[in-house]
Records
---
Amino acid sequence: MENQAVLKKNTNKFSTKDIVLIAMFAAVMAVCSWISIPIGAIPVTLQTFGVFCALSLLGGRNGSFSIAVYILLGAIGLPVFTGFKGGLAALTGPTGGYILGFILMALLYWAGTKLFGSKLPVSIGLLTAGLAVCYLFGTIWFVFGYSKGENTMSFYKALKLCVIPFVPFDIIKLVLAAVISSRVKKQLNL
Protein backbone atom coordinates (compact mmCIF):
# COMPACT_ATOMS: atom_id res chain seq x y z
CA MET A 1 0.00 0.00 0.00
CA GLU A 2 2.83 2.36 0.88
CA ASN A 3 4.57 1.61 -2.46
CA GLN A 4 1.43 2.58 -4.39
CA ALA A 5 1.33 5.93 -2.59
CA VAL A 6 4.98 6.53 -3.47
CA LEU A 7 4.38 5.57 -7.12
CA LYS A 8 1.32 7.82 -7.34
CA LYS A 9 3.23 10.70 -5.76
CA ASN A 10 6.05 10.46 -8.35
CA THR A 11 3.83 10.36 -11.46
CA ASN A 12 4.03 14.14 -11.86
CA LYS A 13 7.81 14.09 -12.16
CA PHE A 14 9.64 13.90 -15.46
CA SER A 15 11.62 10.75 -16.12
CA THR A 16 14.89 10.85 -18.04
CA LYS A 17 13.01 9.41 -21.01
CA ASP A 18 10.43 12.23 -20.78
CA ILE A 19 13.13 14.91 -20.72
CA VAL A 20 14.96 13.38 -23.69
CA LEU A 21 11.74 13.12 -25.74
CA ILE A 22 10.70 16.68 -24.85
CA ALA A 23 14.09 18.00 -26.01
CA MET A 24 14.12 15.78 -29.08
CA PHE A 25 10.72 17.01 -30.23
CA ALA A 26 11.70 20.64 -29.62
CA ALA A 27 14.54 19.95 -32.07
CA VAL A 28 12.17 18.16 -34.47
CA MET A 29 9.90 21.23 -34.50
CA ALA A 30 12.90 23.44 -35.29
CA VAL A 31 13.96 21.25 -38.20
CA CYS A 32 10.37 21.04 -39.44
CA SER A 33 10.08 24.84 -39.37
CA TRP A 34 13.16 25.16 -41.58
CA ILE A 35 11.60 22.99 -44.28
CA SER A 36 9.52 25.45 -46.26
CA ILE A 37 7.84 25.85 -49.62
CA PRO A 38 7.36 29.49 -50.64
CA ILE A 39 3.81 29.91 -51.99
CA GLY A 40 3.39 33.61 -51.28
CA ALA A 41 4.20 36.08 -48.56
CA ILE A 42 4.06 33.30 -45.94
CA PRO A 43 5.69 29.95 -46.81
CA VAL A 44 4.21 26.51 -46.13
CA THR A 45 6.37 24.73 -43.55
CA LEU A 46 6.32 21.45 -41.66
CA GLN A 47 6.32 23.36 -38.37
CA THR A 48 2.72 22.40 -37.56
CA PHE A 49 3.51 18.80 -38.49
CA GLY A 50 6.20 18.83 -35.77
CA VAL A 51 3.73 20.30 -33.28
CA PHE A 52 1.08 17.69 -34.17
CA CYS A 53 3.63 14.88 -33.82
CA ALA A 54 4.89 16.18 -30.45
CA LEU A 55 1.37 16.25 -29.05
CA SER A 56 0.28 12.94 -30.60
CA LEU A 57 3.40 11.04 -29.57
CA LEU A 58 4.28 12.62 -26.25
CA GLY A 59 0.78 13.32 -24.99
CA GLY A 60 -0.64 16.57 -23.71
CA ARG A 61 1.72 17.23 -20.81
CA ASN A 62 5.05 16.35 -22.41
CA GLY A 63 3.96 17.68 -25.81
CA SER A 64 3.08 21.01 -24.17
CA PHE A 65 6.46 21.19 -22.50
CA SER A 66 8.19 20.34 -25.77
CA ILE A 67 6.37 23.18 -27.53
CA ALA A 68 7.22 25.54 -24.68
CA VAL A 69 10.91 24.58 -24.93
CA TYR A 70 10.81 25.16 -28.69
CA ILE A 71 9.28 28.62 -28.26
CA LEU A 72 11.70 29.53 -25.44
CA LEU A 73 14.67 28.51 -27.60
CA GLY A 74 13.39 30.83 -30.30
CA ALA A 75 12.67 33.61 -27.79
CA ILE A 76 16.28 33.63 -26.56
CA GLY A 77 17.47 34.07 -30.13
CA LEU A 78 18.21 30.61 -31.49
CA PRO A 79 17.15 30.41 -35.16
CA VAL A 80 14.47 27.74 -34.67
CA PHE A 81 11.57 29.46 -36.44
CA THR A 82 10.70 29.56 -40.14
CA GLY A 83 13.40 31.17 -42.25
CA PHE A 84 15.99 30.47 -39.53
CA LYS A 85 14.58 33.31 -37.45
CA GLY A 86 14.73 33.65 -33.70
CA GLY A 87 14.45 36.25 -30.98
CA LEU A 88 11.60 38.15 -29.42
CA ALA A 89 11.03 40.09 -32.63
CA ALA A 90 9.92 36.88 -34.36
CA LEU A 91 7.39 36.26 -31.58
CA THR A 92 6.14 39.81 -31.23
CA GLY A 93 5.90 40.45 -34.96
CA PRO A 94 2.65 40.12 -36.91
CA THR A 95 2.96 36.34 -37.42
CA GLY A 96 4.26 35.57 -33.92
CA GLY A 97 0.73 34.90 -32.71
CA TYR A 98 0.59 31.70 -34.75
CA ILE A 99 3.70 30.41 -32.97
CA LEU A 100 2.35 31.44 -29.57
CA GLY A 101 -0.94 29.83 -30.55
CA PHE A 102 0.84 26.47 -30.43
CA ILE A 103 0.79 26.79 -26.64
CA LEU A 104 -2.99 27.21 -26.69
CA MET A 105 -3.25 24.22 -29.02
CA ALA A 106 -1.11 22.15 -26.65
CA LEU A 107 -3.08 23.15 -23.56
CA LEU A 108 -6.37 22.34 -25.29
CA TYR A 109 -4.96 18.96 -26.35
CA TRP A 110 -3.70 18.24 -22.83
CA ALA A 111 -7.06 19.10 -21.24
CA GLY A 112 -8.98 17.21 -23.92
CA THR A 113 -6.99 14.02 -23.56
CA LYS A 114 -7.47 14.19 -19.79
CA LEU A 115 -11.23 14.33 -20.33
CA PHE A 116 -11.75 12.13 -23.40
CA GLY A 117 -8.67 9.91 -23.68
CA SER A 118 -6.21 9.75 -26.56
CA LYS A 119 -7.67 7.31 -29.09
CA LEU A 120 -7.00 8.27 -32.73
CA PRO A 121 -10.40 9.91 -33.47
CA VAL A 122 -10.22 11.91 -30.22
CA SER A 123 -6.63 12.94 -30.99
CA ILE A 124 -7.57 14.10 -34.50
CA GLY A 125 -10.56 16.01 -33.13
CA LEU A 126 -8.50 17.72 -30.44
CA LEU A 127 -5.70 18.59 -32.86
CA THR A 128 -8.29 20.05 -35.26
CA ALA A 129 -9.89 22.12 -32.48
CA GLY A 130 -6.43 23.22 -31.34
CA LEU A 131 -5.49 24.24 -34.86
CA ALA A 132 -8.66 26.34 -35.09
CA VAL A 133 -7.78 28.05 -31.79
CA CYS A 134 -4.23 28.64 -33.04
CA TYR A 135 -5.60 30.13 -36.29
CA LEU A 136 -7.97 32.40 -34.36
CA PHE A 137 -5.34 33.61 -31.89
CA GLY A 138 -2.72 34.07 -34.62
CA THR A 139 -5.11 35.96 -36.88
CA ILE A 140 -6.19 38.33 -34.12
CA TRP A 141 -2.50 38.87 -33.29
CA PHE A 142 -1.73 39.45 -36.99
CA VAL A 143 -4.51 42.05 -37.37
CA PHE A 144 -3.34 43.85 -34.23
CA GLY A 145 0.37 43.65 -35.20
CA TYR A 146 -0.16 44.65 -38.82
CA SER A 147 -2.55 47.48 -38.01
CA LYS A 148 -0.02 49.49 -36.02
CA GLY A 149 0.73 52.89 -37.45
CA GLU A 150 -0.80 53.76 -40.82
CA ASN A 151 -1.44 50.17 -41.92
CA THR A 152 -4.87 48.62 -41.55
CA MET A 153 -5.88 45.00 -41.83
CA SER A 154 -9.34 43.50 -41.51
CA PHE A 155 -9.90 40.14 -39.85
CA TYR A 156 -11.29 38.72 -43.10
CA LYS A 157 -8.32 39.95 -45.14
CA ALA A 158 -5.95 38.44 -42.56
CA LEU A 159 -7.81 35.11 -42.82
CA LYS A 160 -7.46 35.21 -46.62
CA LEU A 161 -3.75 35.92 -46.33
CA CYS A 162 -2.66 33.84 -43.33
CA VAL A 163 -5.13 31.01 -42.84
CA ILE A 164 -7.24 29.98 -45.84
CA PRO A 165 -4.29 29.08 -48.13
CA PHE A 166 -2.81 26.90 -45.38
CA VAL A 167 -5.89 24.97 -44.24
CA PRO A 168 -5.58 22.12 -46.80
CA PHE A 169 -1.87 21.67 -46.06
CA ASP A 170 -2.43 21.74 -42.30
CA ILE A 171 -5.26 19.19 -42.50
CA ILE A 172 -3.02 16.83 -44.47
CA LYS A 173 -0.17 17.34 -41.97
CA LEU A 174 -2.55 16.80 -39.05
CA VAL A 175 -3.96 13.52 -40.35
CA LEU A 176 -0.51 12.24 -41.36
CA ALA A 177 0.96 13.15 -37.96
CA ALA A 178 -1.91 11.51 -36.07
CA VAL A 179 -1.78 8.29 -38.10
CA ILE A 180 2.02 8.05 -38.10
CA SER A 181 2.17 8.85 -34.38
CA SER A 182 -0.42 6.20 -33.60
CA ARG A 183 1.68 3.56 -35.35
CA VAL A 184 4.97 4.76 -33.87
CA LYS A 185 3.48 4.75 -30.36
CA LYS A 186 2.55 1.10 -30.77
CA GLN A 187 5.97 0.15 -32.10
CA LEU A 188 7.96 2.04 -29.46
CA ASN A 189 5.53 1.49 -26.57
CA LEU A 190 5.28 5.22 -25.85
---
Amino acid sequence: MTWRLIADVGGTNVRFARVFDGLVFSERRAYPGARFESFIHAMRAYATETGGLEGCSSVAIGAAGPVAAGEIHLTNIAWTIREADVEAEAGAPCTLLNDVEAAAYGALTLTERDYTLLSGPAPDLSRARRLLIANIGTGFGAAALFRMENVWASCPSEAGHMSLRLPDDAAELRLAFPSVEHALSGRGIAHLHAALRGCDDGLSARDICANSARDPAAAATVRLFSEITGSVLGDLTLAYTAWDGVFLVGSVAKGCAATDPRAMRAAFENKGPMSERLKTVPIALMLKEDPAFFGLAIAPVHTF
Protein backbone atom coordinates (compact mmCIF):
# COMPACT_ATOMS: atom_id res chain seq x y z
CA MET A 1 0.00 0.00 0.00
CA THR A 2 1.38 3.39 -0.98
CA TRP A 3 1.47 6.39 1.32
CA ARG A 4 2.73 9.99 1.49
CA LEU A 5 5.33 11.14 3.99
CA ILE A 6 4.59 14.58 5.44
CA ALA A 7 6.76 16.75 7.66
CA ASP A 8 5.91 19.97 9.47
CA VAL A 9 9.19 21.72 10.34
CA GLY A 10 8.96 24.40 13.02
CA GLY A 11 11.52 26.45 14.86
CA THR A 12 11.62 23.96 17.74
CA ASN A 13 10.22 20.63 16.57
CA VAL A 14 9.89 18.62 13.37
CA ARG A 15 6.80 16.44 13.07
CA PHE A 16 6.31 13.52 10.69
CA ALA A 17 3.41 11.31 9.69
CA ARG A 18 2.38 8.83 7.03
CA VAL A 19 -0.80 9.61 5.11
CA PHE A 20 -2.87 6.96 3.36
CA ASP A 21 -5.89 7.36 1.08
CA GLY A 22 -8.84 9.02 2.75
CA LEU A 23 -6.63 11.30 4.87
CA VAL A 24 -5.74 8.47 7.23
CA PHE A 25 -2.73 9.47 9.33
CA SER A 26 -0.45 7.00 11.06
CA GLU A 27 2.94 6.82 12.77
CA ARG A 28 2.92 10.41 13.98
CA ARG A 29 6.21 11.41 15.55
CA ALA A 30 7.71 14.67 16.82
CA TYR A 31 11.39 15.33 17.47
CA PRO A 32 13.36 18.34 18.74
CA GLY A 33 15.05 19.81 15.70
CA ALA A 34 18.21 20.56 17.69
CA ARG A 35 18.72 16.80 18.06
CA PHE A 36 19.72 16.50 14.38
CA GLU A 37 22.30 18.21 12.21
CA SER A 38 19.97 18.26 9.21
CA PHE A 39 16.44 17.49 8.07
CA ILE A 40 17.69 14.39 6.26
CA HIS A 41 19.07 13.02 9.55
CA ALA A 42 15.68 13.63 11.21
CA MET A 43 13.92 11.92 8.31
CA ARG A 44 16.24 8.90 8.61
CA ALA A 45 15.49 8.62 12.32
CA TYR A 46 11.75 8.66 11.61
CA ALA A 47 12.12 6.04 8.86
CA THR A 48 14.15 3.79 11.17
CA GLU A 49 11.52 3.99 13.92
CA THR A 50 8.57 3.38 11.62
CA GLY A 51 9.73 0.60 9.32
CA GLY A 52 11.51 2.39 6.49
CA LEU A 53 10.34 4.23 3.40
CA GLU A 54 9.09 1.36 1.27
CA GLY A 55 5.79 2.32 -0.32
CA CYS A 56 6.39 6.06 0.00
CA SER A 57 4.91 7.61 -3.15
CA SER A 58 5.67 11.26 -2.38
CA VAL A 59 6.94 13.62 0.31
CA ALA A 60 5.45 16.98 1.32
CA ILE A 61 7.30 19.29 3.70
CA GLY A 62 6.08 22.54 5.24
CA ALA A 63 8.62 24.89 6.82
CA ALA A 64 8.74 28.48 8.03
CA GLY A 65 10.34 30.72 5.42
CA PRO A 66 10.29 31.42 1.69
CA VAL A 67 10.88 28.60 -0.78
CA ALA A 68 13.27 29.47 -3.61
CA ALA A 69 14.65 27.21 -6.34
CA GLY A 70 13.43 24.11 -4.55
CA GLU A 71 15.03 24.83 -1.20
CA ILE A 72 14.34 26.62 2.05
CA HIS A 73 16.68 28.02 4.68
CA LEU A 74 15.21 27.87 8.17
CA THR A 75 15.71 30.78 10.54
CA ASN A 76 15.63 29.13 13.95
CA ILE A 77 17.46 25.92 12.99
CA ALA A 78 20.66 25.85 10.94
CA TRP A 79 19.02 23.65 8.32
CA THR A 80 18.67 23.97 4.58
CA ILE A 81 16.07 21.63 3.13
CA ARG A 82 16.37 20.81 -0.58
CA GLU A 83 13.76 18.96 -2.58
CA ALA A 84 16.50 17.18 -4.56
CA ASP A 85 18.13 15.83 -1.39
CA VAL A 86 14.82 14.54 -0.04
CA GLU A 87 13.92 12.95 -3.38
CA ALA A 88 17.27 11.14 -3.46
CA GLU A 89 16.72 9.88 0.11
CA ALA A 90 13.09 8.81 -0.32
CA GLY A 91 13.15 7.69 -3.93
CA ALA A 92 9.96 9.67 -4.44
CA PRO A 93 9.04 13.19 -5.57
CA CYS A 94 9.14 15.93 -2.93
CA THR A 95 7.05 19.08 -2.59
CA LEU A 96 8.47 21.82 -0.38
CA LEU A 97 5.99 24.41 0.91
CA ASN A 98 6.00 27.46 3.10
CA ASP A 99 4.24 26.59 6.37
CA VAL A 100 1.36 29.02 5.81
CA GLU A 101 1.00 27.72 2.26
CA ALA A 102 0.57 24.25 3.77
CA ALA A 103 -2.10 25.55 6.16
CA ALA A 104 -3.82 27.20 3.19
CA TYR A 105 -4.26 23.84 1.46
CA GLY A 106 -5.66 22.61 4.77
CA ALA A 107 -8.58 25.01 4.30
CA LEU A 108 -9.77 22.80 1.45
CA THR A 109 -10.46 19.99 3.94
CA LEU A 110 -12.72 22.09 6.19
CA THR A 111 -16.30 21.21 7.00
CA GLU A 112 -18.74 23.62 8.67
CA ARG A 113 -17.76 22.37 12.12
CA ASP A 114 -14.08 23.07 11.42
CA TYR A 115 -14.43 26.87 11.44
CA THR A 116 -16.42 29.63 13.06
CA LEU A 117 -17.69 32.64 11.15
CA LEU A 118 -16.42 35.94 12.58
CA SER A 119 -18.21 38.33 10.23
CA GLY A 120 -19.74 38.63 6.80
CA PRO A 121 -21.81 36.03 4.93
CA ALA A 122 -21.21 32.32 5.36
CA PRO A 123 -18.48 30.96 3.08
CA ASP A 124 -19.33 28.39 0.42
CA LEU A 125 -16.19 26.33 -0.08
CA SER A 126 -17.88 24.14 -2.69
CA ARG A 127 -18.13 27.14 -5.04
CA ALA A 128 -15.03 29.06 -3.94
CA ARG A 129 -12.34 30.00 -6.45
CA ARG A 130 -10.10 32.36 -4.47
CA LEU A 131 -9.32 32.20 -0.75
CA LEU A 132 -6.95 34.01 1.59
CA ILE A 133 -5.45 32.26 4.62
CA ALA A 134 -3.62 34.32 7.25
CA ASN A 135 -1.64 32.95 10.17
CA ILE A 136 -1.31 35.09 13.31
CA GLY A 137 0.88 33.39 15.87
CA THR A 138 4.56 33.73 16.66
CA GLY A 139 4.70 35.79 13.47
CA PHE A 140 2.37 36.78 10.65
CA GLY A 141 2.07 34.96 7.35
CA ALA A 142 -0.42 34.76 4.50
CA ALA A 143 -1.06 32.66 1.42
CA ALA A 144 -3.76 32.56 -1.22
CA LEU A 145 -5.44 29.67 -2.99
CA PHE A 146 -6.69 29.88 -6.57
CA ARG A 147 -8.91 27.35 -8.27
CA MET A 148 -8.23 26.72 -11.97
CA GLU A 149 -10.64 24.24 -13.51
CA ASN A 150 -10.62 21.48 -10.86
CA VAL A 151 -7.12 22.11 -9.54
CA TRP A 152 -6.13 24.36 -6.67
CA ALA A 153 -2.84 26.29 -6.77
CA SER A 154 -1.29 28.25 -3.93
CA CYS A 155 0.54 31.57 -3.83
CA PRO A 156 2.63 32.11 -0.66
CA SER A 157 3.85 35.50 0.53
CA GLU A 158 6.05 37.23 3.05
CA ALA A 159 3.22 39.53 4.10
CA GLY A 160 4.49 39.82 7.66
CA HIS A 161 7.35 41.97 6.41
CA MET A 162 5.16 44.46 4.56
CA SER A 163 5.19 48.04 5.84
CA LEU A 164 2.45 48.68 8.38
CA ARG A 165 -0.03 51.53 8.01
CA LEU A 166 -1.50 52.38 11.40
CA PRO A 167 -4.89 54.03 11.99
CA ASP A 168 -4.80 57.83 12.13
CA ASP A 169 -5.41 57.91 15.89
CA ALA A 170 -2.35 55.70 16.45
CA ALA A 171 -0.04 57.39 13.94
CA GLU A 172 2.41 58.40 16.66
CA LEU A 173 3.29 54.71 17.11
CA ARG A 174 4.46 54.34 13.50
CA LEU A 175 8.20 54.27 14.20
CA ALA A 176 7.78 51.49 16.77
CA PHE A 177 5.87 49.24 14.35
CA PRO A 178 7.60 49.36 10.96
CA SER A 179 6.19 46.04 9.66
CA VAL A 180 2.96 44.06 9.89
CA GLU A 181 4.55 41.35 12.03
CA HIS A 182 5.67 43.91 14.63
CA ALA A 183 1.98 44.34 15.51
CA LEU A 184 0.20 41.19 14.33
CA SER A 185 1.88 38.49 16.41
CA GLY A 186 2.05 37.38 20.02
CA ARG A 187 4.89 39.73 20.81
CA GLY A 188 3.14 42.38 18.69
CA ILE A 189 0.16 42.53 21.05
CA ALA A 190 2.51 42.93 24.01
CA HIS A 191 4.35 45.71 22.16
CA LEU A 192 1.09 47.47 21.30
CA HIS A 193 -0.01 47.28 24.93
CA ALA A 194 3.31 48.68 26.18
CA ALA A 195 3.20 51.49 23.63
CA LEU A 196 -0.35 52.50 24.56
CA ARG A 197 0.41 52.38 28.30
CA GLY A 198 3.77 54.09 27.99
CA CYS A 199 5.49 51.23 29.85
CA ASP A 200 5.97 47.48 29.64
CA ASP A 201 4.16 45.64 32.45
CA GLY A 202 5.29 42.23 31.25
CA LEU A 203 1.84 40.92 30.33
CA SER A 204 1.62 38.23 27.65
CA ALA A 205 -0.73 38.38 24.67
CA ARG A 206 -2.95 35.82 26.40
CA ASP A 207 -3.13 37.96 29.56
CA ILE A 208 -3.91 41.13 27.61
CA CYS A 209 -6.76 39.48 25.72
CA ALA A 210 -8.13 37.92 28.91
CA ASN A 211 -8.06 41.32 30.68
CA SER A 212 -9.72 43.26 27.86
CA ALA A 213 -13.22 43.08 29.41
CA ARG A 214 -12.15 44.86 32.61
CA ASP A 215 -8.93 46.75 31.86
CA PRO A 216 -9.22 49.88 29.65
CA ALA A 217 -5.61 49.64 28.46
CA ALA A 218 -6.05 45.99 27.47
CA ALA A 219 -9.35 46.82 25.76
CA ALA A 220 -7.69 49.62 23.78
CA THR A 221 -4.91 47.23 22.78
CA VAL A 222 -7.31 44.56 21.56
CA ARG A 223 -9.35 47.15 19.65
CA LEU A 224 -6.23 48.54 17.93
CA PHE A 225 -4.99 45.03 17.22
CA SER A 226 -8.37 44.16 15.67
CA GLU A 227 -8.35 47.33 13.55
CA ILE A 228 -4.86 46.60 12.25
CA THR A 229 -5.83 42.98 11.55
CA GLY A 230 -8.89 44.07 9.58
CA SER A 231 -6.98 46.66 7.58
CA VAL A 232 -4.17 44.27 6.65
CA LEU A 233 -6.61 41.48 5.74
CA GLY A 234 -8.57 43.92 3.59
CA ASP A 235 -5.43 44.96 1.74
CA LEU A 236 -4.42 41.34 1.13
CA THR A 237 -7.93 40.43 -0.01
CA LEU A 238 -7.77 43.20 -2.58
CA ALA A 239 -4.26 42.21 -3.67
CA TYR A 240 -5.30 38.60 -4.27
CA THR A 241 -8.97 39.36 -5.14
CA ALA A 242 -9.82 36.66 -2.60
CA TRP A 243 -13.54 37.33 -2.76
CA ASP A 244 -14.61 33.89 -1.53
CA GLY A 245 -13.30 34.11 2.01
CA VAL A 246 -10.58 34.89 4.51
CA PHE A 247 -9.60 32.19 7.00
CA LEU A 248 -7.50 32.92 10.07
CA VAL A 249 -5.23 30.35 11.73
CA GLY A 250 -2.65 30.47 14.51
CA SER A 251 -2.58 30.68 18.28
CA VAL A 252 -2.99 34.46 18.45
CA ALA A 253 -5.80 34.43 15.90
CA LYS A 254 -7.66 31.93 18.08
CA GLY A 255 -6.99 33.88 21.25
CA CYS A 256 -7.47 37.48 20.21
CA ALA A 257 -8.43 38.13 16.61
CA ALA A 258 -12.13 37.53 17.30
CA THR A 259 -12.21 39.67 20.45
CA ASP A 260 -13.44 42.82 18.67
CA PRO A 261 -14.97 41.57 15.39
CA ARG A 262 -16.82 44.87 14.76
CA ALA A 263 -13.60 46.87 14.82
CA MET A 264 -11.92 44.30 12.60
CA ARG A 265 -14.80 44.28 10.14
CA ALA A 266 -15.02 48.06 9.91
CA ALA A 267 -11.30 48.34 9.13
CA PHE A 268 -11.53 45.43 6.68
CA GLU A 269 -14.25 47.14 4.67
CA ASN A 270 -12.81 50.67 4.86
CA LYS A 271 -11.28 50.60 1.38
CA GLY A 272 -12.97 53.45 -0.50
CA PRO A 273 -14.60 52.36 -3.77
CA MET A 274 -14.05 48.68 -2.91
CA SER A 275 -15.87 48.84 0.42
CA GLU A 276 -19.12 47.47 -0.98
CA ARG A 277 -17.31 44.56 -2.62
CA LEU A 278 -15.53 43.69 0.62
CA LYS A 279 -18.85 43.54 2.49
CA THR A 280 -19.54 40.27 0.64
CA VAL A 281 -16.31 38.59 1.82
CA PRO A 282 -16.57 36.16 4.78
CA ILE A 283 -13.98 36.21 7.57
CA ALA A 284 -13.75 32.96 9.51
CA LEU A 285 -11.50 31.38 12.11
CA MET A 286 -10.21 27.85 11.54
CA LEU A 287 -10.89 25.56 14.48
CA LYS A 288 -9.38 22.45 12.94
CA GLU A 289 -6.23 21.25 14.65
CA ASP A 290 -3.10 20.85 12.54
CA PRO A 291 -4.41 22.46 9.33
CA ALA A 292 -0.85 22.35 7.93
CA PHE A 293 -0.79 18.55 8.34
CA PHE A 294 -4.01 18.22 6.37
CA GLY A 295 -2.72 20.68 3.78
CA LEU A 296 0.50 18.73 3.31
CA ALA A 297 -1.57 15.58 2.91
CA ILE A 298 -3.41 16.96 -0.15
CA ALA A 299 -0.92 19.43 -1.65
CA PRO A 300 -0.15 18.81 -5.35
CA VAL A 301 2.85 16.55 -5.97
CA HIS A 302 5.86 17.83 -7.86
CA THR A 303 7.20 15.34 -10.35
CA PHE A 304 10.83 14.38 -10.92
---
Amino acid sequence: MGGMIVIRKMGITWQLRMRMAEKSMFQTSDLVPLLGERGIHLSREQVFRLVTQTPQRLSMDTLAALCDILDCSPNDLIDIQVVNAEVRKASGGDSPVVPRVRRSTIRRPDLA
Protein backbone atom coordinates (compact mmCIF):
# COMPACT_ATOMS: atom_id res chain seq x y z
CA MET A 1 0.00 0.00 0.00
CA GLY A 2 1.11 3.56 -0.57
CA GLY A 3 2.28 5.73 2.31
CA MET A 4 3.41 9.29 2.79
CA ILE A 5 6.97 10.53 2.60
CA VAL A 6 8.31 13.99 3.33
CA ILE A 7 10.42 15.82 0.77
CA ARG A 8 12.57 18.59 2.22
CA LYS A 9 12.10 21.54 -0.10
CA MET A 10 13.63 24.99 0.21
CA GLY A 11 11.73 28.22 -0.32
CA ILE A 12 13.51 31.52 -0.95
CA THR A 13 12.31 35.07 -0.37
CA TRP A 14 14.36 37.67 -2.24
CA GLN A 15 14.74 40.79 -0.07
CA LEU A 16 16.56 43.13 -2.48
CA ARG A 17 13.68 45.60 -2.86
CA MET A 18 13.28 45.85 0.93
CA ARG A 19 17.02 46.38 1.50
CA MET A 20 17.01 49.08 -1.20
CA ALA A 21 14.06 50.85 0.45
CA GLU A 22 15.92 50.85 3.77
CA LYS A 23 18.65 52.85 1.99
CA SER A 24 16.05 55.19 0.40
CA MET A 25 16.60 53.65 -3.02
CA PHE A 26 13.19 53.36 -4.66
CA GLN A 27 14.08 53.28 -8.37
CA THR A 28 15.57 50.11 -9.81
CA SER A 29 17.60 52.31 -12.17
CA ASP A 30 19.45 53.68 -9.09
CA LEU A 31 21.37 50.40 -8.99
CA VAL A 32 22.68 50.51 -12.58
CA PRO A 33 25.55 53.00 -12.04
CA LEU A 34 26.35 51.64 -8.57
CA LEU A 35 26.73 48.13 -9.97
CA GLY A 36 28.78 49.52 -12.87
CA GLU A 37 31.21 51.15 -10.41
CA ARG A 38 31.82 47.64 -9.07
CA GLY A 39 32.38 46.06 -12.49
CA ILE A 40 28.86 44.62 -12.85
CA HIS A 41 27.41 45.85 -16.14
CA LEU A 42 23.71 45.03 -16.42
CA SER A 43 21.07 46.71 -18.55
CA ARG A 44 18.23 48.63 -16.93
CA GLU A 45 15.91 45.75 -17.84
CA GLN A 46 18.21 43.18 -16.22
CA VAL A 47 18.44 45.25 -13.04
CA PHE A 48 14.64 45.69 -13.02
CA ARG A 49 14.21 41.90 -13.16
CA LEU A 50 16.89 41.43 -10.50
CA VAL A 51 14.99 43.73 -8.14
CA THR A 52 11.44 42.62 -8.90
CA GLN A 53 11.87 38.85 -9.31
CA THR A 54 13.66 36.21 -7.27
CA PRO A 55 16.68 35.23 -9.38
CA GLN A 56 17.14 31.53 -10.09
CA ARG A 57 20.85 32.10 -10.73
CA LEU A 58 22.98 34.92 -9.40
CA SER A 59 26.71 35.39 -9.88
CA MET A 60 28.80 35.70 -6.76
CA ASP A 61 30.25 38.95 -8.15
CA THR A 62 26.76 40.45 -8.46
CA LEU A 63 25.82 39.25 -4.97
CA ALA A 64 29.02 40.74 -3.52
CA ALA A 65 28.37 44.06 -5.33
CA LEU A 66 24.79 44.22 -4.01
CA CYS A 67 26.03 43.53 -0.48
CA ASP A 68 28.64 46.29 -0.82
CA ILE A 69 26.14 48.80 -2.23
CA LEU A 70 23.55 48.07 0.46
CA ASP A 71 26.05 47.51 3.29
CA CYS A 72 24.53 44.13 4.08
CA SER A 73 25.32 40.41 4.01
CA PRO A 74 23.90 37.72 1.70
CA ASN A 75 21.66 36.64 4.61
CA ASP A 76 20.03 40.08 4.48
CA LEU A 77 19.14 39.57 0.79
CA ILE A 78 18.12 35.92 0.79
CA ASP A 79 15.63 34.55 3.31
CA ILE A 80 15.54 30.75 3.16
CA GLN A 81 12.66 28.70 4.55
CA VAL A 82 12.27 24.95 4.68
CA VAL A 83 8.98 23.90 3.10
CA ASN A 84 8.27 20.25 3.83
CA ALA A 85 5.87 18.63 1.42
CA GLU A 86 4.22 15.28 2.02
CA VAL A 87 3.74 13.23 -1.11
CA ARG A 88 1.95 9.94 -1.63
CA LYS A 89 4.16 6.97 -2.46
CA ALA A 90 3.05 4.94 -5.44
CA SER A 91 1.65 1.61 -4.34
CA GLY A 92 4.05 -1.23 -5.03
CA GLY A 93 7.02 1.06 -5.63
CA ASP A 94 9.45 3.27 -3.81
CA SER A 95 9.13 6.30 -6.06
CA PRO A 96 6.81 9.03 -4.81
CA VAL A 97 3.92 10.41 -6.79
CA VAL A 98 4.78 14.09 -6.88
CA PRO A 99 1.85 16.45 -7.39
CA ARG A 100 2.08 18.78 -10.37
CA VAL A 101 2.80 22.38 -9.52
CA ARG A 102 1.34 25.20 -11.58
CA ARG A 103 3.21 28.46 -11.52
CA SER A 104 1.07 31.52 -11.22
CA THR A 105 1.86 34.97 -12.51
CA ILE A 106 1.01 37.98 -10.41
CA ARG A 107 0.77 41.22 -12.29
CA ARG A 108 0.84 44.57 -10.55
CA PRO A 109 -1.91 46.85 -11.88
CA ASP A 110 0.43 49.84 -12.05
CA LEU A 111 2.80 47.96 -14.39
CA ALA A 112 0.18 46.72 -16.86
